[in-house]
Amino acid sequence: MTINISRLAATALLGVTLLPAAVQAQTPPPAPPHRPGVNARLRHQDARVDQGDASGQLTRRESRRLSRRDARIAGQAARDRYLHNGHLTAGEHRRLNRELNRTSHAIYRKKHNDRTR
Predict the structure, then answer these.
(1) Alpha-carbon distance 68 to 66, whole Å?
(2) For residue range 72-85, what is the model confidence (pLDDT) as tens digits?
(3) Are 82 and 92 a contacting pair, CB within 8 Å?
(4) Alpha helices (H) along 1-117
(5) pLDDT tens-digit readout, 91-108
(6) pLDDT value at position 34?
(7) At what angle do helices 38-55 and 60-83 cross, to 10 degrees?
(8) Closest residue by Cα to residue 36 from 24, 25, 49, 45
(9) How far apart are CA 4 and CA 117, in angstroms?
(10) Residue 116 has what pLDDT?
(11) 95-99 long-range CB contacts below 8 Å, 24 or more apart?
(12) Model pTM greater than 0.85?
């Protein structure tokens, strides 16, 4: 039995080059970055409105409207969760985040306008 050195070297080289690919294929994909949920964002925005109300940066009318806007988003989230066994679909999550972004910008604009209480 003769051992062909070139065949043995080629097989070893092939095994060494394929080993990292096999190991990489077995590792799980990285987890997506954690983003605060809809309820956490609503709590944070509510705290921002309360702080603006307490400091006088928001008028009573601005504060009431912004709080009502957040309450409407919370109601939408609750209805969406009710329809899908306590979960939000990707589309619902995008829509709610878009609304939360708009409300967040509105809070900033209202707190930084020249109207005070």
Answers:
(1) 5
(2) 999 999 999 999 99
(3) no
(4) 5-26, 38-55, 60-83, 90-111
(5) 999 999 999 999 999 999
(6) 61
(7) 170
(8) 45
(9) 91
(10) 82
(11) 96/38, 97/38, 97/41, 99/73
(12) no
Residues 6+ apart with CB under 8 A from 42: 70, 73, 74, 77, 100
Q: Which two tokens stand for residue 100?
A: 């939360």
Q: What is the pLDDT of residue 105?
A: 97
- Which segments in the chain show pLDDT lower than 50? none
For residue 48, give both structure tokens: 């921002």
Q: Residue 58: is it exposed, middle or buried by C-beta count within 10 angstroms (0-12/13-18/19+)? A: buried
The single residue listed with the structure tokens 């987890």 is 31
∠ CA 82-46-104, nearest 5°, is 90
